[in-house]
Amino acid sequence: MEGKHPADVIRTALAETLVLYYPLAGVLFIKADADVTLEQFGDALQPPFPCFDELLFDVPGSQGILNCPLLLIQVTRLKCGGFIFAIRLNHTICDAPGVKQFVSSVAAMARGEATHLILPVWERHLLDAGDPPRVTLNHNEYDEVEAGVTTRTTSLLFDDNVVQRSFFFGPTEVSLLRRFLPVHLRHCTKFELLTALLWRCRSLAINLQPHEHVRMIIAVNARSKIEPPLPHGYYGNAFGLPAAITTVKNLSDNPLGYAVELVKQTKASFSKEYMKSVAALMVIRGKRPVVLNVISSFIISDLTKLGLEDVDFGWGKAVFVGTPNAIGETSFSVQAKNKKGEVGTSIAICLPVPAMERFAQELDNMLQQQPIIKVNYNEFILSCKTK
């Protein structure tokens, strides 16, 4: 690949890949050069990224759902010889695993290894609602939220007074947090642990009344969760958004294990019946708006196992893969390194300025507490260090 501009190589590979992925045709593609090096982005590559609007130019009129390009791609060559591949997609056409499959195909084409492609499968009817559509489950994630005394029903997406901040959890932090859990929960996944922690801290930080309800919504990949499984190569949307709901008081008064249990139960509730039920709900509601983004809801998606870090366009694997920031109430769990070179999980949070300060303080308080001491199966003592 020496002497070639990565944008030229990728654009050619993209055109070849779109022959197979023809529903994505009509891509906006931008070739760019930047007078900066990778090192100038800092020692630890974590969201939010500075100057991201220059790394993925927002082409006027390209953000809509209808009558707009489905993909916007920009390839920016850096002064050091590296490059940044940035992509924005219309989420109605595919999900994160679908994007990974598509981008991997483009990369294989760029390397001249077309035989390594996964053949795309459309088959959208496999996740259709039944006929007639029947809602068989409760879907708290799509409840219409009524405003309480302090609850805002507007999304952070439309608030100019918000800040983005990324929080890193390496082996030390994760090990410490596990010690706060009762023995039967200490084998929970890292994602379950961090989701519970951030949901708890966020719910306390947004300054709601103790009796008000808060939701934790998890993006769950359906590909390995339903029977029969979706065919290999399916690249459409195949995820659900099951939700846990509780009150601020319950999260505040109970130890971290309470939130972990709710996260685990929510993940376990996901099934093919859930997918059919939520599809039926969407059909019955018709074109009425679906309300997910309110400040009392925390939405999170785990991208750490997506595998995009293995994508190689011919110049080697990426040093960072992930979303550039949080999107309103939605956060993404991505793999990253800290300044010490430790591999861990980075999660960006978006909150109003005062709430972000409280969130950081709540998180700091949790990490400074002493572990729980088991008294019996249901009782625990939680003590804090004094300064």
From TrEMBL:
Annotated InterPro entries: CAT-like_dom_sf, Plant_acyltransferase
Q: Which Gene3D superfamilies match?
A: Chloramphenicol acetyltransferase-like domain
Extract the Pfam families matched here: Transferase
What UniProt keywords are attached to this protein's entry?
Transferase
Name the source's superkingdom. Answer: Eukaryota
Q: Which family does it belong to?
A: Belongs to the plant acyltransferase family.
Q: Which PANTHER family match?
A: ACYL TRANSFERASE 4, OS05G0315700 PROTEIN
Protein name, as recorded: Benzyl alcohol O-benzoyltransferase
